[in-house]
Design brief:
Layout: H1 3-17, H2 24-34, H3 40-52, H4 60-95, H5 102-130, H6 133-149, H7 154-170
Helix pairs in contact: 1-2, 1-4, 2-5, 3-4, 3-5, 6-7
């Protein structure tokens, strides 16, 4: 895949979601379904690698770029990840006093709900690829309970799940 096209596709994902995992549906659609340069397993690995490392939640786009085009792809992913940050200041200036307007709040709520639905739609195929057998179902259930009902950081949940998986693999 052309590096410039890779950058534009990742930029589209980060611009329409303002980073984080909300860009996952767009990334999955473009790279797994449309261009078929990634598999669901590679995308899951990219998300895990991006989440385990320090830094922003949207760091996984660098791993996506790496999986698609090596080191130049990782650089394109990094540029796509940081570009929206340069656009925030002019956007905040434009929004300014309009942020408290009733319509602006309604738009914000609608975008949040739509983003949640898109994230769920992209997460289901990734989960189907990753969940096999009772151990992984148990890890998913325990992880969900810890994240939903406690204040345990997701890093510790992921680290614990990885350790359980490694120990289960050893025995």
């Amino acid at each position: 895949m052309n590096i410039f096209l890779l950058y534009l596709l990742l930029l589209k994902a980060t611009l329409t979601s303002f980073s984080g995992l909300a860009s996952l549906p767009v990334v999955r659609h473009d790279f797994v379904e449309r261009y078929r340069v990634l598999t669901d397993r590679q995308l899951t690995t990219a998300v895990a690698a991006g989440r385990l490392g320090p830094g922003p939640m949207g760091l996984y786009v660098v791993s996506v770029g790496y999986f698609v085009a090596g080191v130049p792809g990782a650089c394109a992913g990094w540029l796509a990840m940081i570009t929206p940050a340069f656009l925030v200041i002019p956007m905040l200036r434009f929004i300014g006093k309009r942020a408290e307007h009733r319509r602006a709040k309604s738009v914000t709520r609608a975008v949040l709900v739509a983003g949640g639905g898109l994230l769920l739609s992209a997460s289901v195929p990734l989960a189907q690829d990753a969940i096999h057998g009772p151990l992984s179902i148990g890890i998913v259930a325990l992880s969900f309970a810890l994240i939903a009902f406690t204040r345990v950081d997701t890093f510790w949940v992921m680290l614990g799940a990885a350790i359980i998986g490694l120990l289960a693999f050893q025995f």
